[in-house]
Amino acid sequence: MTDAVSSLVDALASGTVRIVDLTQPLSEATPIIQLPPPFANTPGWAMREISAYDDRGPAWYWNAFEGGEHVGTHLDAPIHWVTGRDRDDVSQVDLSRLIGPAAVIDMSAEAAADPDFLLTVDDVLEWESRHGSLPEGGWLLYRTGWDARAGDQQAFLNANETGPHTPGIDVDCARWLAEEAPVVGVGVETVGTDAGAAHSFEPAFPCHSFLLGRGKLGLTQLANLSELPATGAVLIVAPLKIVKGSGSPCRALALVPN
């Protein structure tokens, strides 16, 4: 092994670097986005037993599953949105973009006070004044505390007669992250990278529109961002290599120095 890889293996073994699981459990209870008519909705997650050490297969247990590409903790590939329709599908995303330094912006207090809270460019610049520039080739991970709601579909979507109310990113900040920031993607704890009210923004769903249109990536329904420092963690994202896939459920991990 090279010195760099050996050092990482030693750090993991000694506990000087720990692994934090950023992935929500994937099951029939996993919250899923709900689009209004006439739009088609994704199926939720479902499993069907094939055999379980019985006459159907005496020595093995296995299942078949069904679920949308955008269920649970998942990666949005650029092709997911019309603005990125000619860009990479999830099988084509360069692996170097799936591992990188993480910048964690904690706005959980603001989101607790206002579920429609929107991250602004000024918020990011203020964070940079304290922690340094966003990392080149890295990820912005946006902590809102919304992962605490992930076990309850109603609380997670937080919808009423006017639509869902979940925190997100304002239009100018979404454009800035896509066009000027050096990050390759944005990760959130909510059901999608856009705010619940983003259907009424101009343009609608600006994170999807701007970021995916620029070939950047989205990562949603993250957990345990509270365990990450503002800087110093490394994000690892492992989606399925689905040919022509617009995204994929994934396992998201972070390497964090102790």
Q: Give the uncertain stretches in residue-range form.
A: none
Q: What is the ordering of alpha helices and beta strands?
A: HEEEEEHEHEHEEEHEHEEE
Largest beta sheet: strand ordering: 4-12-11-7-5-13-14
Shape: globular
Q: How does the helix and strand content classify structurally?
A: alpha/beta
How is the biggest beta sheet arranged? 7 strands, mixed, barrel
Number of helices: 6
- What is the radius of gyration? 19 Å
Total E-strand runs: 14
Tell me the span between the first and last alpha carbons. Answer: 23 Å
Describe the structure.
This protein has 258 residues and is of the alpha/beta class. It is 20% helix and 29% strand. The protein is built from 6 helices and 14 strands. It has helices at residues 3-14, 108-113, 121-131, 153-157, 171-179, 206-213, and strands at residues 17-21, 46-54, 57-66, 74-76, 99-106, 118-119, 139-143, 159-160, 163-164, 168-169, 185-188, 217-220, 233-239, 247-257. Strands 4-12-11-7-5-13-14 form a 7-stranded mixed β-barrel. A two-stranded antiparallel ribbon has the order 2-3. It is globular, with a radius of gyration of 19 Å.
Features:
two-stranded antiparallel ribbon, alpha/beta, 258 residues, 14 strands, globular, single chain, 7-stranded mixed beta barrel, 6 helices
Provide a short characterization of the protein structure.
The chain has 258 residues and is an alpha/beta fold. The chain contains six helices and 14 strands.
